[in-house]
Amino acid sequence: MGTVKRIVYVERGKGKGNFSCFSPDPVGKCGLAGYGKTAREAMDDIIVTVKEYKEMEEEEGRRFPEVQFDFRLDIGSFFDYYPIDVTAFAKYIGMNASVLRQYIASLRVPHEAQVKKIREGINKFASDLAHGLPLEQPTVQRLNKSF
After folding, report:
1. Given this model, what pLDDT does residue 130 score?
2. 3-class DSSP assignment, residue 106
3. How far apart are CA 8 and CA 78, in angstroms?
4. Which of 6, 34, 35, 48 is the most buried (most CB within 10 A)?
């Protein structure tokens, strides 16, 4: 029995500390879900779920496959997982920061065009970081060390 791959959707519910993740496809008869106060906790919890299923199956004399996850984050879980300043990011992509915060808190559901704009902004930001300007010490500090 080899490795099985599962897509896992990580979502933020309304309010604080309300994250969940799930795979729509079970592994055998085992449904996969995780919960936590943060996106990372929910993701860790689904990994624990798999370990527990594996232990139960092995106790019964059955093999349980290794599971590889492909996590997919919604807007709220993305901004919880990555500590990005929402106001600065909204400005960077040309979006109203208040509206973006409502999407993040699951108080408002974004239309597909808004999701696309956020996704493109994230991709642009990642590309800018990968290919952007090198980070240097401020000139004044560097010059002061020379003297």
Report:
1. 85
2. coil
3. 14
4. 34
Q: Any idea how long the chain is?
A: 147
Tabulate helix, strand, coil % of the chain (nearest 5): 50, 25, 30
The single-letter DSSP state of residue 21 is E
**Predicted structure pTM score:** 0.81
pLDDT, tens only, 50-62:
999 999 988 999 8
Structure tokens at 70: 């492909």
Q: HSE, CB side, 13 Å, CA atoms: give it for residue 70.
A: 7
Q: Please report, for residues 47, 61, 87, 146, the alpha-carbon distance to residue 41 in angstroms, rounded to integers and kept in the order given.
A: 10, 30, 25, 47
Closest CA to 38 of 14, 8, 18, 13: 18
Question: In angstroms, rounded to a whole number, what is the distance separating the alpha carbons of residues 120 and 115?
Answer: 8
